Amino acid sequence: MSLVNYIDAAQQYFDDLVIKATDDELFAGGYLRGHFDLAVGYAEVEKLTISIDELNETVEQSLVKAYRNGELNEEDKTLVARLWEEVKALA
Predict the structure, then answer these.
(1) Which residue, 19, 55, 63, 75, is the most exposed by fewest CB within 10 angstroms?
(2) Domain count across the chain
(3) For the residues 81-86, what does the mean pLDDT come to?
(4) Model-wide pTM > 0.85
């Protein structure tokens, strides 16, 4: 799968959450989408040629930093981690 197709699939995944997700999943999905979109946007602005694995690594580094800053409680972290695994599986 190409990076562009992966990004498109991830965006569709996030869009689909609006239809079927619980309130907690919507929160976690929106939170995760923010980190994902930030990583994609940074790569685009910097005109970086990155792989899916590099994009995922950037997202994970961003999430770890946010967790260390205490942005989420344990329940939310668990939910974000589950959704993130689902997004990565799209590749």
Answers:
(1) 19
(2) 1
(3) 96
(4) yes
